[in-house]
Amino acid sequence: MSHKLKIAGWISVGALAGALTTVSLQTVARGSLAPLPLEELQQLAAVFGMVKSDYVEPVDEKKLITDAISGMVASLDPHSQYFDKKSFKEFREGTSGRFVGVGIEISQEDGLVKVVSPIEGSPAYRAGLKSGDLITKIDDTAVKGLTLSEAVKRMRGEPTTKVMLTIYRKDENRTFPVTITREEIKTQSVKGKVVEPGYAWIRLSQFQERTVEDFVRKVDEIYKQEPNLKGLVLDLRNDPGGLLDAAVAVSAAFLPENVTVVSTNGQLAESKFTYKASPEFYMRRSGGDPLRRLPAALKNVPLVVLVNEGSASASEIVAGALQDHKRATVLGSQTFGKGSVQTVRPLGPDTGLKLTTARYFTPSGKSIQARGIVPDVLVDESAEGNVFSILRTREADLDKHLGSGQAPEAKNPVLEKAREEARKRAEEEARKPVAERKVPEFGSATDFQLAQALNQLKGRPVLISKTQVVENKEEKKEN
Fold it and tell me: Which residues does the annotated region (Disordered) include (predicted)?
């Protein structure tokens, strides 16, 4: 393993809490600090003193300081964050794929908690929570005004305890309570099957510590069942991300050895790095190359990658690498656009700071930040079109989002018009019976995008979207 990788320790992209981040746990601090603005620091100290002495009632000094740190970091971008003791523990649990909670990936929208997607098989999934649901209350606490980490704290707890979430479902225009029993979430990040003779489907719902091993095991099962595989669909829809080494490994499973998978660039020397399809870039332990058991045929099997607006971070790394190397046809909708790197540095034994330190780039040098991956073939989520997906929040919609660093992003009037039309269609859909509006389960016989992916593999006509609008399409290379 290279010197830079030893310094970086480990990197993850995405977060189970829904922050959709790219993260590096780094134990080495910068060798030097920039000169401090003394006048401004004196003002900060003066304000602290005034609040402590003049406020209407006594205040907790430690809380004042941690709130000041939290506010300073949160003002930068949506993914930088101060971790207190509990949130730091929860963050580390999230990347391991094991934690106690309800089992949802979340983001924020209009001050409320938005469900990005329920984790398959979790209590929230069984309770019927859906992507796009807004959580307005957690037990008796209103969500408005809470930070994302505060909301996560309230939803997590001890196994077998209950939490009541008040849900506002936009497409049905109703609010209702859901009581969920917390349990340890052991997310199964890999699913797959032979969908018909000669063709298989593998879905990655997250990139976790066990993902690569589970991926290898699932591929092995598929090839034992179907030795003469003619085509494979890699499904990354609604995959919010996870560990970078897992994303590099999955990419390497399909790519020639030692080609570039992803690169990062920022101010720090260690943030300027290129990850390649080679074991030294994805091996986590001394057990050797986890991909060594994969059948050689996987390197050449015809491949389609399915993505949508919920595909973020690690998902975008994989899709971008396979697209740039022309190893796969990317099919679906433009992805989320989470292309920034966060470094997590411990501030003590149990607190830390997550700070955006770099952007990541596809092998051809394209920034994904605030743009996402544009599929080779745009396909709607159903035969009726993209009724709801265009309404989903993407990175470019988040307040204070980081720009791509390559070309200015501007509001697309065509896209805004399409969203308005989609809102009207969503209202019409909401009047239909629930059974008729339900989006088919991924991998099922009624999965429209999967059917189009199979058509692509077979050389048959694909029903291309006539309505999807690509956001921030214009690009230019960095000099």
Answer: 401-442
DSSP class per residue in 122-138: SHHHHTT--TT-EEEEE
**Segment (H or E) for 249:** helix 244-254
Whole-angstrom Cα distance, residue 119 to residue 97? 11
Q: What is the largest CA-CA distance in the chain?
A: 77
- Model confidence at 5, pLDDT cuts 50, 70, 90, reads very low
∠ CA 21-24-28, nearest 5°, is 150
Catalytic residues: 313, 324, 338
Nearest CA-CA partner of 146 in 114, 191, 185: 114
> Which residue intervals of the chain bear CATH 2.30.42.10?
99-186
Q: Which of 124, 152, 127 is nearest to 17 (CA)?
A: 152
Which candidate, 263, 234, 403, places its Cα nearest to that of 332?
234
* Phi, psi values for residue 25, rounded to 5°: -85, 120
CATH code that applies to domain 99-186: 2.30.42.10
Cα–Cα distance between 402 and 311 in angstroms, integer? Answer: 18
Going by C-alpha positions, the residue among 309, 284, 297 that lies closest to residue 207 is 284
What digits encode the pLDDT tens for the residues 31-40? 445 678 889 8
Radius of gyration of the chain (CA): 23
Q: What is the pLDDT of residues 426-445, one digit of tens each?
A: 555 555 554 454 456 789 89
- Tokens in use for 386? 């993209």
- In one-letter notation, the amino acid at residue 147 is T
> Among candidates 141, 143, 140, which has minimal Cα distance to 168?
143
- CA distances to 2, 6, 368 from 264, rounded to whole Å, are 15, 16, 11
How far apart are the C-alpha atoms of 438 and 173, rounded to whole Å?
15
For 475, residues 6+ apart whose C-beta sits below 8 A from its C-beta are 366, 371, 406, 407
Query: pLDDT tens digit string along 283-341?
Result: 976 678 999 999 999 999 999 999 998 899 899 999 999 999 999 999 999 998 888 88
Backbone angles phi, psi at 130, to 5 degrees: -125, 160
The residue type found at 347 is L
| Cα-based distances in Å from 118 to 239, 372, 410 | 11, 22, 31
Q: For the chain, first and last CA: distance in Å?
A: 30
* Separation CA 180–CA 476 (nearest Å): 48
Torsions phi, psi for 10 (to 5 deg):
-145, 155
CA–CA distances in Å: residue 293 to residues 254, 283, 288: 13, 14, 11
